[in-house]
Design goal:
binds zinc ion, mainly beta, about 100 residues, six-stranded antiparallel β-sheet, 1 helix
């Protein structure tokens, strides 16, 4: 199970849920669409054109913030992660990445 936010993916006609991923630094959050896998590094800037286009797939770094996407501390964000980052009010619900695919 993973949390998704109130804002939906701008690419998927508002049908794609944006799930919250905790990055490899154990605190940075990323927002990924369960329909098209577009990835955003900031909840404040989830718009067409501002998604991460050049993710370094070898090192899995988010280029804008220089944070590794994967690692021992990475995983689906918990409610505590959301509280720590001050976005718990933006959480819309909890679901499963696969089951929510249409
Ligand atoms: Zn999408």
């Amino acid at each position: 199970m993973a949390f998704y936010i109130k804002k939906n993916c701008p690419y998927c006609d508002d049908e794609g849920n944006l799930f919250v991923w905790r990055c490899g630094d154990g605190k940075s959050l990323a927002f990924s669409c369960d329909e098209c896998s577009a990835l955003w590094a900031s909840i404040e800037n989830i718009e067409i054109g501002s998604e991460l286009k050049e993710v370094d797939l070898i090192n899995n770094f988010m280029p804008s913030v220089n944070v590794p996407i994967y690692g021992p501390s990475a995983g689906w964000a918990t409610m505590q992660d959301m509280i720590n980052q001050g976005i718990s009010d933006e959480v819309a619900g909890e679901g499963d990445w696969v089951e929510t695919r249409k």
